[in-house]
Amino acid sequence: MVPAQLGCTDGWLAGPGLARLLDQALGAYLGLAVGDALGATVEFMTPREIQARHGVHRDLTGGGWLRLRAGQVTDDTTMSLALGEALLEGHRTQRPWDARLMAEAFVRWWRAKPVDCGNTCRRGIVRYLATGVAAGPMQEGDGGNGALMRNLPVALATWPDARLMADVSLAQAHITHHHPASDAACVAFGHWLHAIWRTPDPTQARAVLADAVRAWVLTQPLFRFEPYPGRASGYVVDTVQTVLHHTLGAPDVERAVVGAVNQGDDADTTGALAGMLAGAIHGASAIPARWLQRLDPAIRLAITAQTTALLALHVSPLGTQESR
Known about the structure:
Helices cover about 60% and strands about 0% of the residues. By secondary structure, it is mainly alpha-helical. The longest helix has 25 residues, at about 15-40.
């Protein structure tokens, strides 16, 4: 059912078009969460260790170094939800896109003692608490994937405004990660999500993504992933290469996510981002039911509510696409 607050819009985004957009948007967010939960079990393992212990790891079993419950998520999902709430709070309080609200949301998230927090995220949050300045300086050590992993709410909240998406993506990123490679990845993934959401047919959406990725790699050769280098670390370049290799090489959500997480290393984040892109292409209805049934129910409900609320920021009750 289409939430009433999203109304109907002109063109293809009316009736079935709007329902498809919601399926794709929810697919991205739920895909991120199930990929996170699946990958957390094998985080920091090598592919050989995964094979020896699990065969092919494909079910939400929990465990791993964090000793999670089956279906429990990590910082990839919970930081995304914190960022999404900050974006919604900004509009409720007439402070849209305020980076300080985003930083404060990360502080609350951190103080609530999440199951995991990356070193670069922690350092950025502590810096903000000490200085009160949202944007940190550019640092060579900020090239991790922590800003990219949580940026989906920005793409949702700014759709279909590409320029606004890029500006807000960098604002949230620089709270903890200020590095050219991280910046490039955050903005690129946002553009790809917007392009996918404009393309309701999954086969066409996958082709649109492939074309956009290959054009981008020509301008960002550091991220070249063909042939695949085989590294899946928390360095944003390794993460992006792994996600693109497995997402573009798989015909559905399950095979994209399973392929990424069985690469091991930073498997919760590669799984989350592969699930996000594949979920955006194929929609929530294409995510394996056994994964959604195992996903933490509170997380599933929070994602569903936040997805529609974020999209509603740019699709007015009168049914017009707003551009701020």
